[in-house]
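ARCHIVE CARD
Drawer: 12
Card no.: 0347
Subject: one protein chain, sequence and derived structure
Cross-reference: see card 0346
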Amino acid sequence: MGTEVNQLLLYHDLIAGIVAAMEARDAYTANHSMRVAEMAVALCEFLNLPEEETILYHISAHLHDLGKIGIEDSVLRKSSPLTAVEWEQMKSHPVIGSNILSQIDSFEGIAKIVRAHHERWDGRGYPDGLTGENIPFGARIIAVADSIDAMLSTRPYRPEMTAVRCQEEIQTNICKMFDARIAHSALMNWDQLLQRRSAACSAW
């Protein structure tokens, strides 16, 4: 296992503490991050990625919403749809998270992934409008897992989506929002992926 990954593993307790801090601020964000992280690992396994890469993406997924720490409570915890101004503030969280993580030398790769996790394959994402393979591969994995968990979660302003409807949305957005290889892997292993999501809160 590489030196960089070993250094990341040394931060395991710190990461657990950060997730706990997010939970204290917003329980949805913390539980969501744990589910996304577990699905990200599952996707790495489906794609037969090396262990070092899987660990990097696992940690990145746990921290992908770290930047929400910098979002005002009135926006983060709002129980109705966001206004245009509030949505712009919410969209700043990948940059905030990346800026925080980039202060740690060993987290340079994670910071880049966190910054890019809301980019879209077609270039219509944010914050940088990256396209296709210009988006870090870990961010593309997190984008699929993040979207699945968001669609399958109940929020104060909307009900959860059915698993079938969620599958349809993933299929529809291949090569729009999502990397085709990753999205197809999720769809081909759908039941197993959702089982991993269900078990996430006791998995790490």
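Annotation on reverse: The first helix runs from residue 3 to 10. The chain has a mean pLDDT of 90.
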